[in-house]
Specification:
The structure is a homodimer. Chain A has one domain: 2-Layer Sandwich (Alpha-Beta Plaits). Helix content of chain A is 29%, strand content 32%. Chain A is built from two helices and five strands. Chain A is α+β, with helices and mostly antiparallel strands. A four-stranded antiparallel beta sheet of chain A has the order 2-3-1-4, covered by helices on one side.
Chain lengths: 82, 82
Amino acid sequence: MPTFMDVHREMHGLTAAALTEVHRADLAIESDEQVHFERVWADPETGHLFCLSEGPSREAVMRVHARAGHPTSEVYEVALSI
Amino acid sequence: MPTFMDVHREMHGLTAAALTEVHRADLAIESDEQVHFERVWADPETGHLFCLSEGPSREAVMRVHARAGHPTSEVYEVALSI
């Protein structure tokens, strides 16, 4: 299954509780698209959020995020990693 | 020690061997800045590279990358993670 990193840029002021809720919303529906969100990192100051996932396609990752209420078009297939 | 995610956008066509070399170049000098690069993910198709590190400051991370030959100004302090 390919691995993806996606980027959100409008999460200014995100709290730990809000991040937990964002992630929970993805986890609640991800299996509909055979996606799994593994990790998430947030910079509340600049509003950046990075999500690491596995799934069948970029579009599947985008659909989960969109349905969960935080759409992004910035989804990159990270074919290489260390 | 704060955690950082940084983004490079000009790594088109990166191979696994080239990614290993990019990461090795960071690891070779990171201790000069009390930085440690933990993980790296690359999308050779769009040229995106994401690096996860720990260190004392954004500037320290930027200095390591610059000296290693792949500078970026996109370094985000990811204060929250899951």
